[in-house]
Amino acid sequence: MIKINRAGKYAIDIRFDINGASELCEAFLLTLAGEEAVIALSEAAQINSKKVKELGLAQVNDEESLHYAQSGLMLKLDSDSIENILAKLKTCVGGQDFFPAECCEVRFGKINLSFYAFLEKAVD
After folding, report:
1. 20 to 30 A Cα–Cα from 122, which one of 3, 53, 96, 110?
2. d(Cα 37, Cα 106) in Å, to the nearest integer?
3. pLDDT tens digit sequence for 11-68
4. CB atoms within 10 A of CB 113
């Protein structure tokens, strides 16, 4: 499970379970290898006036950004941010929280937007 939603004017949350953390790990590893990755979201999200069904990931060497893509969002990050997120995701696969929750700050249109990540654990 991987979901995203707008969390106020200056933030986006990405929420995932352990399987989603594994899928995100694989996608971020692809970006470090120079490839783009696309992740299908578990449910469509409404970001501003756009319906978002996918999250694309890519590595860049310049400004980190988020922008609308064909049927989703494209998140472009530098290698340092990707490696930081990967380290946190690997702890999530082991059942620990994504900590701290801040992933990155990116340019989204005319504003800077913070990305936060949360591991949602199943309730027994």
Report:
1. 53
2. 18
3. 999 999 999 999 999 999 999 999 999 999 999 999 888 999 999 999 999 899 999 9
4. 19
Model's pTM, two decimal places? 0.91
H helix runs in 1-124, sequence order? 18-32, 79-93
Please name the residues in contact with 33: beta carbons below 8 A apart, sequence gap of 6 or more. none
CB 53 within 8 A of CB 72: yes
50 burial type by CB count under 10 A (0-12 exposed, 13-18 middle, 19+ buried): middle
From residue 76, how far is each of 62, 91, 97, 124 by CA, in Å? 9, 22, 24, 36
Which pair of structure tokens corresponds to residue 119?
């591991």
Between 79-93 and 18-32, two packed helices, what is the crossing angle to 10 degrees? 150
